[in-house]
Amino acid sequence: MALLTDKELMELAPSVFTTKKSKKVSDKYSFIPTINVINDMRKLGWEVFNASQQKPRSVDDIPHTKHLVRLRNSTIGLINDSVPEIVLTNSHDGRNAFKLHAGLFRLVCSNGMVIADTTIDNIRIKHQWYDFDDIKVITDTMVNKVPEMIKKMNLLNNVILSDDEQIEFAEKAIVTRWPKGNESINVEDLLSPIRKEDRGDDLWRIFNVIQEKLVKGGLVFNNKKEKMQKIRPVTNIDRHVTINKDLWELTEAYV
Prior knowledge:
Structural class: alpha+beta
Order of helices and strands: HHEEEEEEHHHHHEEH
Number of domains: 2
Number of strands: 8
Largest sheet: 6 strands, antiparallel
């Protein structure tokens, strides 16, 4: 996946370029366009590789809806089969501060993950306190955490789960998306790898297989009317981040 130009970024998440704050916020609201933060991160070597925005509640909300942007730094190498990223979330409606999360993008399945705060804390930036020097400190902090990410991933690679443990893990993973559970989901289907690179009993591969299906959707199941349906992808940004982090935290508990 190549880095995005501003034109491509505009097509995926036009709210990133909004230049006026929402009429719904007070005069005290300090407005900073997300593109300003992205341009500051570009000065520090971080480039945009993917982005999305949330479906707005109304047409008027389109310029201010929540968005998610994934950035990478070419000076940071691969961690096994994944690229470290910084995941930025923000909105221009006064409901959200800038948040920067540590992320991983797995090349073999073109799938992005967000790492739990138990491994690397997410960092909030309040609009009225935004400063370029703060961004530099934050990005440097996350870069310094890369060795910790490598250690965590190596641990996941070294943990082998028995068949019973895999089923238990999958059942707990289902709850990260459906808190009350989902009896329609076949656990064996959830554990079944999509590609040969995902075959194996180590925790890292099992985590990736399940994470991709829970977040990207596509898994076929029988509903209560005995009709075949597919799990829809998670498009709500808050849910996307929460499911990813909860699943990562669950995975860490097996180490």
